[in-house]
Design the sequence.
C-alpha cells in the first residue's frame, strides 16, 4: 500500500516525548522527517533509560526513521539554515512547509518570523501552558486532580503516573494538527499555526470524561477507590502463585459469566435477596464492590494463574493477567522472528543493541506501518542540506570547518 | 476562522470512550457528526458518573455537537437505513463516506459489506485486540506492565490508572486515521479501512518510550519507585498545611534554582564532595533521589502552600501544586463567565445542569475550537433521515409507527 503521508516532508526541532512521538508517527505514516538538532543534541540526548554503555534508549527509540541534521543554532548562519529548511518549498510546495517544535523561547523560530518566509506554513508548536509558562507531564498531571484518585485508597499521598500519558496524547494531537492542516491547505492554499499546550491537553481530556462536571454535583467529587473501576465492577485479584489478574464485569453478560464460572451464582442470588439490591445493574455492583471483591477473592487465591487462565478461557469473562514490563519484553523478543509480528517489533541497532519498538498501531488496510531505521545524531547533515537547499560540497565543507555544522 | 473539517460529515456508531471522543474532536474541528444509536441508546447510555437524577454525565459529556439518530438496529429496515447513512454521498461525495465504530461483531457493519455499497469509504474500526478478542482500558493496561511500576513503592499490588489513558490515546489515533484517510482520498480517490486495537495502542506506546528495550538490558527491568520521576529528580512534597506539591529538577538550571531557593546549595556541595558524585547530572540526582528528597522535605514541611507558592514564584523552579478534581472544577466554574476562557468551558444543559466540558486543546490560529451543544438521544432522527436520505414525512411516520425509528 502507499502510506498516507508518502511524499510529504516534515521538519522537527524538538525534544522530550510529545513532539518527537508525533514525528515518529508521521514517519511511520510515510512522511520524510528532517530533525534539526543542536550540534551536541537537545536536552534529551542522554536521557534515561540508557544502555549499559550509557546510550539513551529514550532518544534512540523516539527518534527513528528521521534524518538528523546537526546545526549550531546559536550562530546566525545556523539559524538561517534552520529557517531555510523549515520553509523550503522543494519540487512540490504542497508536500513541504510543515514544522513541529516544542521550542517556545527562540526568536528565530516564532511563527511571525517563519511565516514571513513562507506564508502557507503548517506550524505546530507544543508548549507547557497556553500562557507561555513551562509544564511537563508530572506538573500538568498534578494540576488535573488525577493523582488524587490514583493508587491505593489507604494511601494519603497522590499517586503520580509512571506513564507520561499527557505527553503521548499531546503528540497525537500534534499529528492531528499537521494532517488537518494539510487537508485544509490542499483546498484553501492557506497555512495553519496550531499551538498545543500540554496543560490544555490534560484539562480538556479530563473535562471531556465528565469528571469536573461530576464534582459540581451535590454528591461532590469522586474519592480514591484503589484498583476498582468507577461505576461498575472490576478490580485485581491475587492468585495462589502470587500473580495478579484484572477482572471486570462491565456488562450484565460479563457479570453472569463471572459469578457462574466462580460458582458464586447462588451466593449472589441470596445476597441480592438479603440486601434488596439487583446486582445485574452495574451501579449496584459498584456500590457493593468491596463485598463482591471479598466473595470472589478465595476462588482466585485457591488457583494458580495457569489454572485461572484455563478456567476463565471461553467463559465470556473479560479479564487479563498483569504482566511485568520484563515479561512483555521477553515475550516480544521471542516473537521477533515471527512473520505475524504485531504492534511490538524487534529492531537491530548498532548503538542500542536489540531494540523493541512500536509499529504505528493504526492498521491501514490491514497493515501495521513500521520499518524505520535508527536515527543517529547529525548523520544526514550534509546530505539533507545538499538535497533540500542545494548547498555545494565546498559550502558544506566551509560550514563544517567553521563549526556551524557537524561534519 | 474556517474550522479545518468544516463541510465534512462523519457517521459514528459506537460507545464508551475511544470512538466517541474521536468524534467529539472531529465535531470541534468543524465536522457534522451523525451518531447512529440503538433506540434505547448503546451500552454506555446510563454509565457513571451520573447526576442526582441518574442521568449519565459520561454519555452527555462525550456526546456533544452530534446529531443522534435512533434506529432499531436489530431490524432489517433499520440496518439498511444505517448502511445508507454511512455510505451516503450527499451533494459532494468527497465530504461524506466517513464512518467510525467500535462495533466489531455486527455482520451488517463489516468493511466488506459497507465497501460494497461505497468503495471509497473511510472506515475506522476501534477494537479491543487485533486478533478480534475483547479488551478495555483496564485489561489492556494490566498487560502492558505499567500498573506494576505505578503507585507507592512499598505496595506489592499493581496500581491501576484512574485515567483511561489508552482509550483517550486510541480516540486520537482514530482522528488521525480519519483525517489522513481524507487527505489520501483527496488525491488518489481511494478509501481507507483503518483498524485500531486498544491493546496495540498501549503496547506500541510503551515500546516507543523504550521501556521494553530497557528491560532487555543487563540491568533488567525498571522497579516501582513511587512518585519519583525516572532518571532525574522530581517527587511530591507535603506542605505545613497538608497540601502536596510536585517538584521537578530535570535541567541543571532547574536543579540549581531548587537548591538555591531552598537554601540547600552549601549542603548539596558538601554532599557532592562527601559522596564523590556530581549532582548537576540528572542521572546522579536520580541515584541519590531518596537522600535529596529527605534533605528538601523540611523546607516544604515548614511552609504552607501559600508560602511555598510565594517563595518559588519567579525562581525558575519547575513545580505545581496538586489540586483535587473538585478544586479544578470549582475554579473552572468560577471562571466560566471569563472571556479569556481556556481549555475548560461551562455549558448549560437541560439534562445535565451545569456542565464543564473541554474545548479542543489544539489552538488553530490562536483559537480554541468549542461551542458544541448537548446531544439528546434520538433527537435528530427524522431530520437527518429526511436531509441525508430524502425520506418523506409519510415514510418517516411509517418507520416510527412500526418501531424502526424513534418518533
Sequence:
Amino acid at each position: 500500500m502507499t502510506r498516507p503521508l508518502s511524499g510529504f516532508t516534515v521538519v522537527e526541532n524538538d525534544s522530550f516525548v510529545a513532539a518527537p512521538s508525533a514525528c515518529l508517527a508521521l514517519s511511520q505514516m510515510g512522511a520524510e522527517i528532517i530533525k534539526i538538532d543542536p550540534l551536541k543534541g537537545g536536552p534529551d540526548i542522554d536521557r534515561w533509560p540508557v544502555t549499559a554503555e550509557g546510550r539513551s534508549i529514550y532518544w534512540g527509540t523516539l527518534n527513528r526513521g528521521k534524518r538528523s541534521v546537526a546545526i549550531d543554532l546559536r550562530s546566525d548562519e545556523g539559524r538561517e539554515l534552520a529557517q531555510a529548511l523549515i520553509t523550503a518549498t522543494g519540487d512540490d510546495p504542497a508536500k513541504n512547509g510543515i514544522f513541529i517544535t516544542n521550542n517556545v523561547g527562540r526568536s528565530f523560530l516564532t511563527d511571525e518570523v517563519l511565516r514571513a518566509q513562507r506564508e502557507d506554513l503548517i506550524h505546530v508548536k507544543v508548549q507547557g501552558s497556553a500562557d507561555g509558562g513551562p509544564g511537563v507531564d508530572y506538573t500538568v498531571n498534578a494540576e488535573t486532580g488525577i493523582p488524587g484518585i490514583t493508587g491505593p485508597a489507604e494511601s494519603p499521598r497522590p499517586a503520580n503516573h509512571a506513564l507520561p500519558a499527557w505527553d503521548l496524547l499531546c503528540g497525537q494531537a500534534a499529528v492531528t494538527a499537521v494532517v488537518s492542516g494539510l487537508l485544509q491547505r490542499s483546498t484553501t492554499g492557506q497555512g495553519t499555526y496550531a499551538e498545543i499546550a500540554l496543560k490544555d491537553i490534560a484539562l480538556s481530556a479530563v473535562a471531556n470524561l465528565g469528571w469536573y462536571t461530576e464534582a459540581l454535583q451535590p454528591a461532590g467529587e469522586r474519592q480514591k477507590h484503589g484498583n476498582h473501576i468507577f461505576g461498575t465492577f472490576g478490580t485485581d485479584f491475587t492468585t495462589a502463585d502470587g500473580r495478579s489478574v484484572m477482572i471486570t464485569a462491565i456488562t450484565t453478560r460479563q457479570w453472569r459469566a463471572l459469578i457462574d464460572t466462580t460458582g458464586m451464582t447462588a451466593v449472589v442470588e441470596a445476597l441480592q435477596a438479603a440486601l434488596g439490591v439487583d446486582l445485574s445493574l452495574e451501579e449496584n455492583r459498584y456500590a457493593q464492590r468491596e463485598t463482591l471483591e471479598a466473595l470472589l477473592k478465595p476462588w482466585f487465591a485457591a488457583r494458580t494463574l495457569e489454572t485461572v487462565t484455563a478456567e476463565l478461557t471461553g467463559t465470556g469473562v473479560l479479564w487479563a493477567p498483569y504482566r511485568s514490563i520484563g515479561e512483555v519484553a521477553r515475550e516480544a523478543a521471542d516473537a521477533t522472528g515471527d512473520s505475524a509480528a504485531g504492534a511490538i517489533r524487534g529492531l537491530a541497532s548498532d548503538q542500542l543493541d536489540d531494540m523493541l519498538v512500536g509499529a504505528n498501531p493504526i492498521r491501514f488496510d490491514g497493515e501495521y506501518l513500521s520499518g524505520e531505521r535508527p536515527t543517529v545524531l547529525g548523520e544526514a547533515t550534509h546530505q539533507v542540506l545538499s538535497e533540500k537547499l542545494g548547498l555545494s560540497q565546498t559550502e558544506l565543507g566551509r560550514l563544517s570547518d567553521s563549526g556551524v555544522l557537524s561534519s
The radius of gyration of chain A is 26 Å. Chain A touches chain B through 147 residues (CB under 8 Å). The longest strand of chain A covers residues 32-38.
